[in-house]
Amino acid sequence: MQVLSVTSEVFPLIKTGGLADVTGALPAALKHHDVSMTTLLPGYPAVMQALENSETRHTDKNLFGGEAKLLSGKAKDLNLLVLDAPHLFARPGNPYSGADGKDWPDNAQRFAALSRVASEVALGRVGKHKVDVLHLHDWQAALAAAYVRYAEGVSNKPATVVTVHNIAFQGTFPSSVFGALGLPPHAYAMDGVEYYGNISYLKGGLASADRITTVSPTYAQEITTPEFGMGLDGLLRERRDVVSGIVNGIDDDTWNPESDKALAKTYNAKSLVSRSENKRALEKRLDLEPGDGIIHGVVSRLTWQKGLDLLAEHLDWLVGTGARLALIGTGEAAIEGAFRQAAARHKGRIGVTFAYDEGLSHLIQGGADTMLVPSRFEPCGLTQLYGLRYGCVPIVARTGGLADTVIDANVAALSSGAATGFQFSPINADTLQTVLTRAHALYADRNAWSGLQLRGMAQDVSWKASAAAYAALYKTLVQ
Ligand code: ADP
Ligand code: GLC
């Protein structure tokens, strides 16, 4: 079976968050299920540099204002189709925004181009690439499902799957964009791409796809409610029969404490004591005072979603308990500012780095004692999964994929030996403080704590079950 995965980012070529980890790991995981996955993505500079054995499959003289080539090739074990459209993608920095942090003004055209080309490939019109299933990730690719749905004169259309990694990002643009998309006029409708007088690429995709998935069962349920659906819950309730949740796995080669080159010392469940060498390395790296007391770790975008403002409220208290904090993240200036000020007040107790640094993110997983994820909503979340694998005990808000992947150390779960971390709800600053207090109490009991670590490390957080679930879904669509 041939699946074309369409995405705006893929690890290790270009990454701003978990989407890249997922699209980067799925192709290899699916090989065990007789699914051959090719990935179509924009030709950003980093992608063009990494592309090997490239061949031009198609040239379009005018794709949204400039010449575009469809290239095939390989990079880092990924089979790629690359949309080489310099006028849209040959830019420095981030896939979505310029150096000033503002969205590129032509994002509507950039990702419509990606989606349109994806549909043309899948419909067999360009590139001669057989596609049984077109798997579209997030709003940047979702519009392809609408292009396929509204395509005329094609007898054998591919099946379409849209995966929602985060419903907060919907690709909403003014309706004036519609004319250039090349969709028929009747696509501008309530059951098409129209969205309260604007157009929404995600909505168009969700209304058009054969199947909708999201990245955890709990989030699949949550997004059908007004509280989490961000305006799309009504549509998702209507399409409930085709919505499902498949929890993300992790790439267990990239995230393996036994072989991780970013660690000062590799370790496994039998050599957990060696973790302390990573703790020492982390202390040095973030100018933390050395010591055996608890270090909470954070690896996160610093945005409202991630709830780190709730943690910021408690930093003086946290330091007062003797705990330390190791944080790496980038994002909103106000949240960064709160952590920067606290770090200045508590030198040696709060260590922060406001940058994107893959290596340091691994060292935090391997050296900190906990992985804090106090998100207000979290479709799946990957850092708690890495935490489980690394013996970095997750402390998470009970929402979305966090609820589905961490077993709270309540009395019953501790006595039955099931607990793997801590959950708190409702999600607010008070309950966060309470869960931190619970974690500190358990940390003082070293046997109980290492029991938690070992159970977490023994959890299967690989892609095994979830790749099987995707393969099964694809199969139901092509029979
Ligand atoms: P999201 O995709 O919503 O940001 P996830 O938990 O699914 O959340 O994935 C985040 C990914 O980005 C993880 O691989 C995490 O390690 C990584 N990450 C986040 N912030 C940073 C950072 N500042 N430096 C390095 N890696 C980061
Ligand atoms: C999104 C979500 C995150 C999820 C990731 C990969 O960025 O915010 O929860 O883990 O996508 O699916």
What does the model show?
By secondary structure, the chain is α/β, with parallel strands linked by helices. The protein folds into 2 domains: 2-249 and 464-478, Glycogen Phosphorylase B (Rossmann fold, 3-Layer(aba) Sandwich), CATH 3.40.50; 269-458, Glycogen Phosphorylase B (Rossmann fold), CATH 3.40.50.2000. Helix content is 38%, strand content 20%. The protein contains 20 helices and 18 strands. It has helices spanning 18-31, 45-50, 86-89, 107-122, 138-150, 201-208, 217-222, 226-229, 233-238, 275-285, 308-312, 315-320, 333-345, 358-367, 383-390, 400-405, 411-415, 429-443, 446-458, 464-478; strands spanning 2-6, 36-42, 52-60, 68-75, 78-84, 133-137, 159-164, 172-174, 194-195, 198-200, 211-214, 243-245, 295-302, 324-331, 350-353, 370-373, 393-397, 422-424. The strands form 3 sheets. Strands 3-4-5-2-1-6-7-11-12 form a 9-stranded mixed beta sheet, sandwiched between helices. The protein has a 6-stranded parallel beta sheet with strand order 15-14-13-16-17-18, sandwiched between helices. Helix 10 (275-285) packs across helix 14. It starts with a strand and ends with a helix. Alpha-D-glucopyranose (GLC) binds next to helix 1.
